[in-house]
């Protein structure tokens, strides 16, 4: 598709300038509630992408020497600008992604928390010192930036996930090339503009657009030292293999199938409300969405009430007040979700609530699918094995907590899980025995705040260190250990030491 003038063209950010791409390949950015074309996004040329990396490499020479205080103050200013522009950012996000306006503000807010954390970099990037490790010898560590780092982000959190990446990379002294999702790059671009306004120097943050070709260039480019990826398991595995084969650090946060366990002693109304919010919020398009609920013992009798409560959720455009569930991101996503619901029926699951083809007055063209509930789901069914990434909840029974834990541990994914109970002993057993990286106790979506790091595990993650928090400081820096000794002017030289010991 070629660009034409009726809608704006999304710009590239290269060397501090917003530039129009010279590419011939463009893609529409579409409002999922209306199909209105909001903008066109370029697939940058190799020359443009190389220019972005070259600019970041040049900027690194001075940025790496910029004092901590100067770096931190940019993020103090940046958090203020994000707050001041919250409503405008949320409206842009909802228009291109579909989620409700309050949830769009939540998306931005969870990213803002990382920006606030980046403003605290002085406390985070400190080394260690051991005094007198041998006679007159001290050892200490420096945490030095790597160089140019790259970020590749998914469509579902177009504010939060870019903000997981570039603020911490830049605050630790690196420069950055970001490739946002080509499905909804507008709010990400606005956030990049605000970062420049906050004082990020030219070349320190660059943004390129594109798809597989852009991602492959970032994985291959010799000047890029580390790659952060968030997205599907298939693409993340490819990125991890390709980037690490090229000697880069890589961290890939990927797909999920998150289970909640409900014990019969749980607070019933709180539990049901939390389950619905986590299963159907953002139309199920969260990597931490609860897509499987295991009802233990008598909690299985809660199923009719779960369905009744689900029927009260309002499906509408995300920009309409009172909406609970907006559209899914694209027509292709709608086809995928509808197809998986059909497969669930074919494979013998019991469709208790069918959300397909809801009527949404005024938004007949939107990609809507309402909340859908399956019971009688078994681990071999497609709706259990695949990440549906839509508002579809699979309900499964278990006799005991141990049986439910065993089911979750047999699933390959390890992003998030939750237990609803009033029993401290059950909660502790769950916390100890469950093989999932992020655990909620009466908390349905246990995404840690940036005092901690995002710690998905098993098939949901490749690479040791997670995004944001303390772990990402390690990811974006090289630890250098300095062992030093100073001789007094008049110190006599002893005999030559040919052993490994420090004397
Ligand atoms: P996606 O994998 O399709 O796209 C992610 C990025 O990869 C985009 O920037 C895209 O342009 C690029 N890409 C797409 N196809 C590619 C290819 N063939 N080669 C190279 N690059 C390619 O993911 P998505 O649909 O945008 O996002 C949804 C997925 O992200 C879900 O699986 C969800 O669970 C996952 N996700 C995970 C986390 C987490 O923290 N674990 C967070 C959010 C989303």
Q: Would you give an account of this structure?
A:
A seven-stranded mixed beta sheet has the order 14-15-16-13-12-18-19, sandwiched between helices. Helix 2 packs antiparallel against helix 4 (101-118), helix 3 runs antiparallel to helix 7 (186-198) and helix 4 runs parallel beside helix 6. It is α/β, with parallel strands linked by helices and 503 residues long. It folds into two domains: 12-254 and 469-482, Aldehyde Dehydrogenase, Chain A, domain 1; 258-441, Aldehyde Dehydrogenase, Chain A, domain 2, CATH 3.40.309.10. The protein is globular and about 85 Å long. The longest helix has 18 residues, at 46-63. The chain has helices at 46-63, 68-84, 86-97, 101-118, 121-124, 160-171, 186-198, 212-220, 233-245, 268-280, 303-311, 331-346, 382-385, 401-410, 424-433, 469-475, and strands at residues 12-14, 17-19, 26-30, 37-42, 129-134, 137-145, 148-152, 175-179, 205-207, 224-230, 249-253, 258-262, 290-296, 350-353, 372-375, 392-398, 413-414, 417-420, 439-441, 457-458, 461-462, 477-485. The chain is built from 16 helices and 22 strands. It is 37% helix and 21% strand. The model has no long low-confidence stretch (mean pLDDT 97). The structure holds nicotinamide-adenine-dinucleotide.
Question: Can you tag this structure with a few keywords?
Answer:
alpha/beta; seven-stranded mixed β-sheet; Aldehyde Dehydrogenase, Chain A, domain 1; Aldehyde Dehydrogenase, Chain A, domain 2; 22 strands; six-stranded mixed β-sheet; 16 helices; 503 residues; globular; binds nicotinamide-adenine-dinucleotide; 2 domains
